[in-house]
């Protein structure tokens, strides 16, 4: 079973220069650095979702996209 990292604070798109509210969590894993079950998270707005999925997919890192409401959250301190 995969274990997504948690997200904290404002959910802003991870695309460079974008300040839009994220709608998607893109789960990914670099097999050279992470255990197979670990899932790192990039956040994406609707406009950048496909681009970021393609970027991660070209490196064979992309696993899946989920709505941000489904991401595990921790409270900001």
Descriptive key words:
alpha/beta; 4-stranded mixed beta sheet; 13% helix; globular; 77 residues; 6 strands; single chain; two-stranded parallel ribbon; 1 helix
Short description:
By secondary structure, the chain is an alpha/beta fold. It contains one helix and six strands. The model has no long low-confidence stretch (mean pLDDT 91).
Strand arrangement in the largest pleated sheet: 1-4-3-5
Fraction of residues in helix:
10-25%
Output the helix-strand order. Answer: EEEEHEE
Largest sheet: 4 strands, mixed
Overall pLDDT metric: 91
Shape: globular
Low-pLDDT windows of residues: none
Class by alpha and beta content: alpha/beta
CA gyration radius, whole angstroms:
12 Å
Number of domains: 1
The end-to-end distance, rounded to whole angstroms, is 29 Å
Task: Kindly state the number of beta strands.
Answer: 6
Number of helices: 1
Helix-strand layout with pairing:
Layout: E1 3-4, E2 7-8, E3 24-28, E4 38-44, H1 49-58, E5 62-67, E6 73-74
Parallel strand pairs: 1-4, 2-6
Antiparallel strand pairs: 3-4, 3-5
Organism: Paraoerskovia sediminicola
Protein name: Acetone carboxylase
